[in-house]
Design brief:
By secondary structure, the protein is α/β, with parallel strands linked by helices. Helices cover 52% and strands 8% of the residues. The strands form two sheets. It has a five-stranded parallel sheet with strand order 1-2-3-4-5. Helix 2 packs antiparallel against helix 23 and helix 11 packs parallel to helix 13. 40% of the residues are buried.
Length: 559
């Protein structure tokens, strides 16, 4: 046996134990106090050393924020182009390929637009109606409809899907245009980790996706849909409700296990027998992780110990239950691939965007980083755990602003200043951004909204590289040869983060780890009592120094 993972019973038991622990009053008080101390410490550090950091940055010759690497850790491919890019692409295709048959019944692209009453004058960003607005706030259904230009599902299928009559050619060509911008490094150095979907509806999805990625599509950007500036992440939408409804009436009643097998069997087969599954085996070498996506606010069943083979009801299983089964399969797959000397995959799901805050418990247990995580401000004990273990958070400020949390209420600046491993990503440029460079737009909004210094934004960029799945050699190029040893080992000439900031972060994280270790060893009360005494002595020492020197000034004794 290559690997064993905790069974669902063990996971559920640990999950509810963690929920109980982080909800306990004394735990929340302790964690709140520690987080407040971290906030105060950072404010004191910036007050005392902000100018020093600025001077240190200016002395790092040959580099600046624009030249340091930034990774867009969270971006969905179907919404990766800007609205302007998308409209221009569709307009060009209608002009040059109007007679191309794009639907199975022989309908051409020109006919699709003609039947919808749309002509070339309608091809504007406003008419496409893809940019998010007030109608999507707290409305995930309206948000999803924004992916369809003119609210026509047909156009989404033609231009933003791989499984259509033209085998996803338009989608591939549009993707190559987006990737070319990253490769050209226009404006600043950046890379991406774009999401491709596997739905689990059919086993053929993996082969279809592999053929789409590996095909040489020719045109202005020949070659497969692969780039030195992008690594693929597979997103798995939580669509059991659709899968179960689709299977209604079949002789064999579908279970959640059937869906899991559709998702994982093809890649286990490709790992075990790559010669029999060459396309999928090759695709897997370009994938660095898995994501789990959908509306966290959807109704769900409680987390339970049911086996996937027994889940037949139409209701959605709980978020945490589904997360566990994805993680367990990925763990076993990784063990198998590691034994064969192949690349492995991180599990980096969407979590804590909306819905039950305790989704963040299962994410903490199972994942090295997550996308969003803004609900952490509602649960201080979990927030402290995420800090201690430096679980990554890739926050999309403009996406949050339109969907669930206005920028003025976003906890990002608080989480950053406390020292959580946070970075910035774009999510869906097609829907949320106005410029050609969505990632730079996010950084600009963050800097202006939260009064961030250039040291701050450089540190946020550094975190994006740490959270990413790019190869170790590239990380060494971007961060320094010994970056993995900790923040102080990163090369400040590459990261543009002054050593004084790195030392501050490393020291405070180490002190917090020492404190909780001592508390766990039963020395908590004694240590905290001594720390309080030392704080008092330090205050008295500062006061005494001031008073002694003040009294040496002539005519001051009488004051």
């Amino acid at each position: 046996c290559l690997v064993t993972v905790p069974c669902i019973d063990e996971f559920v038991k640990d999950y509810y134990r963690l929920v109980e622990m982080v909800s306990e009053g004394a735990m929340r008080t302790f964690c709140f106090n520690r987080l407040q101390m971290l906030s105060a410490s950072f404010k004191m550090h910036v007050t005392a050393n902000g100018a020093v950091e600025s001077v240190a940055q200016s002395n790092l010759l040959g580099t600046d924020f624009y030249r340091t690497m930034k990774v867009d850790n969270h971006i969905h491919l179907a919404a990766a182009p800007s609205a302007k890019q998308f409209v221009s692409f569709v307009s060009e295709k209608l002009r040059t390929e109007g007679d191309t048959v794009v639907l199975k019944d022989g309908v051409t692209l020109r006919q699709v637009f003609h039947d919808a009453g749309i002509n070339s004058e309608h091809l504007t960003i406003d008419a496409f109606n893809v940019l998010a607005d007030h109608s999507v706030y707290q409305r995930f259904d309206n948000f999803n409809s924004k992916y369809s230009p003119f609210k026509m599902a047909q156009l989404r299928k033609i231009f933003l899907k791989v499984d259509n009559h033209i085998k996803g050619r338009y989608f591939a060509e549009l993707t190559k245009i987006v990737l070319a911008r990253y490769e050209a490094s226009k404006g600043h150095a950046s890379t991406a980790e774009m999401r491709l979907s596997i739905y689990g509806m059919e086993r053929e999805e993996w082969l279809q996706l592999a053929q789409w990625v590996l095909t040489d599509w020719g045109g202005d950007f020949p070659g497969p849909v692969i780039s030195s500036h992008n690594r693929w992440i597979i997103q798995i939408p939580r669509l059991w409700r659709i899968y179960s409804a689709k299977a209604t009436g079949e002789k064999h009643q579908k279970t959640f296990q059937d869906m899991l097998e559709n998702i994982f069997s093809p890649i286990f087969q490709a790992t075990l027998y790559p010669n029999d599954n060459p396309e999928i085996a090759e695709l897997l070498t370009h994938i660095v992780g898995f994501d789990s996506v959908d509306d966290e606010g959807s109704p769900e069943e409680p987390c339970c110990c049911s086996r996937p083979t027994k889940w037949k009801k139409s209701q959605n299983p709980s978020f945490s239950w589904q997360l566990y089964h994805l993680w367990a399969n990925i763990e076993v797959l990784n063990s198998l691939r590691k034994a064969k000397g192949l690349n492995t995959f991180a599990f980096r799901p969407h979590a804590g965007e909306t819905g039950d805050v305790m989704h963040l418990c299962s994410a903490y247990m199972l994942c090295i980083s997550i996308n969003h995580g803004i609900n952490l401000d509602k649960q201080v004990a979990l927030q402290y755990l995420y800090y201690l273990d430096q679980v990554g958070l890739s926050v999309s400020l403009l996406s949050n602003n339109f969907l669930f949390r206005k920028i003025k209420d976003n906890p990002f600046p608080k989480l950053f200043r406390r020292g959580l491993n946070v970075t910035i990503s774009t999510d869906d440029p097609l829907l949320f951004h106005m410029s050609d460079d969505a990632l730079l737009e996010e950084y600009s909004v963050a800097r202006a909204s939260f009064d961030l210094s250039m040291t701050d934004v450089s540190e946020i960029a550094l975190n994006s590289v740490l959270q990413s799945g790019f190869e170790e050699e590239l990380k060494k190029t971007w961060l320094g040869e010994n970056y993995a040893r900790g923040p102080t080992w990163c090369d400040e000439k590459k990261t543009h983060v002054p050593l004084i900031r790195a030392k501050y972060r490393a020291e405070h994280l180490a002190l917090e780890h020492m404190l909780v270790t001592l508390i766990a060893a039963g020395k908590g009360k004694d240590v905290l009592r001594k720390m309080m005494a030392q704080f008092s002595l330090a205050r008295d020492a500062h006061r005494n120094i001031l008073v002694e020197n003040f009294l040496e000034i002539p005519n001051m004794q009488n004051l």
